[in-house]
Amino acid sequence: MSTLKTSLFLHTSIVEDFKKSLRKGLLATEETKKSLRKGLLVTEETKKSLRKGLLATESTNRSLRKGAHALESTNRSLRKGAHALESTNRSLRKGSPALESTNRSLRKGSPALESINRSLWRGGLRSGKYQSEPTEGVLRSGKYQSEPTEGIPRSGKYQSEPTKGIFFAKCSKTSLGKGLFAKSAPK
Question: Is residue 142 part of a domain?
Fold first, then answer.
């Protein structure tokens, strides 16, 4: 019986050792599974990150394509603008001889205008002073009048503004007695 006890004891210890080793193996397997799961999770995260990176890259590519289209459109607009400017320059170059011709005509006409001005000034001056009343066909002076015109109120005040550039048509003495040029005492 002792041998049987010994063999049972040995058998039991072997079984116990085997159980322990199985437990250790199971634990090791469990640890391996956990680490594999972690590895899978890391791999999955890496895949997600890569997908996000690809999406970002694709979005960047789309933006760059849009930017390239916008740049091309801008270039086309600039080219059209350059053509329009060139056309304008050509028109201006064509117009400049016409302007030069107009300037020459005006220069030729200026002596005639000078003589008209001289004759108007001669007729418009009376004993070295500017006239306070218009005479027939005379251009009034461009200077301020030193005294207000008699009896012609303008907005409640006597006229003191210059009369430059106003040409008085020929008027008879009867029409001068009426309207704006009538002489009357201020009220």
Answer: no
Q: Where are the beta strands (DSSP E) in 72-167?
A: 125-126, 129-130, 153-154, 157-158
Domain count, the chain: 1
> Residue 171 domain-assigned?
no
What is the model's pTM? 0.28
Residue pLDDT tens, the chain, 187 long: 567 666 766 677 888 888 888 888 888 888 888 998 898 888 999 999 999 999 999 999 999 999 998 999 999 899 888 888 888 888 888 878 878 888 888 777 777 777 888 888 887 664 454 555 555 444 444 444 444 455 555 554 445 555 555 454 444 444 445 555 555 555 5
- Whether 150 is in a domain gets the answer no
Q: Is residue 81 part of a domain?
A: yes
How many angstroms separate the first and last alpha carbons of the chain? 162
